């Protein structure tokens, strides 16, 4: 549990969150907005874990997929995500994204044309 109240202070346009440790030392984390600092402060207060330990976040299994060539020669090209079947349309020749912006699948399988 937190023995001392966490304090947010403004420092040159940024916001600092001072986190006191049991040994009397203080760890200061800087944020670009007061809202971000308040969010982290609230997480620490609600979590109530030891401040010397990292808070464990929920994780999700990484999906792996590939871009499937769908059409071309009509002024644009469609590529489908092999996982969610959403497509991206390109009007010029560019590198494909390394992940699907719809489902988050990592595009590390062989691209199918």
Describe this structure in words.
The chain has 113 residues and is α+β, with helices and mostly antiparallel strands. The protein has one helix at residues 34-47; strands spanning 7-11, 14-20, 26-31, 67-71, 77-81, 87-90. The chain has a three-stranded antiparallel beta sheet with strand order 1-2-3, covered by helices on one side. A three-stranded antiparallel beta sheet has the order 4-5-6, with no helix packed on it. A hairpin with a 2-residue loop joins strand 1 (7-11) and strand 2. The longest helix is centred in the middle third of the chain and has 14 residues, at 34-47. The termini are far apart. The model is unreliable at 50-56 (pLDDT under 50).
In short:
The protein has 113 residues and is of the alpha+beta class. It contains one helix and six strands; from the N terminus they run βββαβββ.
Attribute tags:
1 helix, alpha+beta, 3-stranded antiparallel beta sheet, elongated, 113 residues
- The whole-angstrom Rg is 23 Å
Mean pLDDT metric:
76
Distance between the termini: 56 Å
What order do the strands of the largest sheet run in, or round the barrel if closed? Answer: 1-2-3
Which bin fits the share of residues in helices? Answer: 10-25%
Largest sheet: 3 strands, antiparallel
Order of secondary-structure elements:
EEEHEEE
Query: Outline, from the CA principal axes?
Result: elongated
Query: How many β-strand stretches?
Result: 6
Which structural class best describes the helix and strand composition?
A: alpha+beta
> In what range is the share of β-strand residues?
25-35%
Low-confidence stretches: 50-56
SS summary, helix count: 1
């Amino acid at each position: 549990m937190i023995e001392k109240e966490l304090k947010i202070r403004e420092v040159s346009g940024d916001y600092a969150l001072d986190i006191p440790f049991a040994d009397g030392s203080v760890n200061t984390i800087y944020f670009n907005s007061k809202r971000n600092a308040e969010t982290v402060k609230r997480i620490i207060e609600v979590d109530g874990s030891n401040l010397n330990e990292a808070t464990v976040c929920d994780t999700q299994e990484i999906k792996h997929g590939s871009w499937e060539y769908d059409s071309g020669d009509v002024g644009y090209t469609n590529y489908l995500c092999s996982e969610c079947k959403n497509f991206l349309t390109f009007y010029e020749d560019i590198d494909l994204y390394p992940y699907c912006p719809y489902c988050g699948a990592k595009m590390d399988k062989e691209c199918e044309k």
